[in-house]
Task: structure prediction
Amino acid sequence: MNIYHYLDEYGKYTFEEKEFNQLDAVLFSYLSYGTFDKVFEEKRKLTIKEAATIHYGYRKGKDNNVIAVKEANELLHYIKDLNRYKNCILYHYQYIGNEETQFGVISIEYQKNKVFVSFEGTDELFSGWIEDFQLSYQFPTKAHELAINYINKKFLFQNKEIILGGHSKGGNLALIAGMYSKNYVRKKIVKIYGMDSPGLLEEQLNSIEYQTIRDRYIHIIPDYSVIGVLLKSENDIVIKSKKKGIMAHDILNWEIEGTQLKKGELSPLSKEISLETDKWNEKYNKEDKLEFVTNLNETFKKANVKDIIEIKEQHKKIITIISESKKMTEKAKTMIKDLISIMIKSYRDTKIEEIKQAIGKNIRIMKKPVEKQKENN
Result:
């Protein structure tokens, strides 16, 4: 069973009848992937039912978005008539998408004065890998700054109980926003959910800011986690997924029991990925990693690689380009080769057909136009 079974059974109950639970957090964490850019053009606040109705009006036909965005859109329409969600209020929508930054967030008031702030994860799998690895040397990132500013600006003067959450990178943004929120805002935060999201740098995990919210942070990762085992975390809640490898990142593959996710144990693959990424992070310093991003992008352009499948299928060609490069130092070449090896290994237990289905034909097309910024106050 997955989250749709939960919606079928509990969607008839309001939050007053059945209190907010772990699966509501999973759902709300995922909704921020939805394409809301045109939904809020005329109104600042909309119920989920109103938003879904408007959304359907301009999104008719085939949805060519990548899997996370497509599934979020489908979930939005699935819950629009359910008693539990139809009157939830969506507001404070913000999206920024350009070549340097991808940031999305939406607030969901699910009960009077109770709000779930959902931060969007990376909206295409290939760029997500690069962005998640950038977290290993850059703090704060532009997305971090936007998340911190959002929570402080939008909720400083609101007397509401706040839950922060997000899937993938979105969970990392939720955690950072909570850590660096102003004291008055932080007091109103009751929980922070990271759904298979990257952890923190060592210094952040040991920081005073993290200590102030650590008892409110819930880090959930599937048994075949790849993204959620990046960087440092503690007290992870491991849950069962129906799929292995990178497909375990998809919440629709997470198994449920009643109102909870089914507990599991971390797989050998996830332990291996975690160990190797830790070694990679320790082996190279910040300057090495800054150079690495530039070299990696140039390498993929030369190899005409556009997605993770092509990395796997053109592995030998990529290695040849790296080896023959006269611009790269030997250290830079080793860095990229090591990382590509980790990336390919993360797809070891996943069928190519499943990856192709997840990525979709339009992986390189952002769900909203480049350089577009939309903010709903």
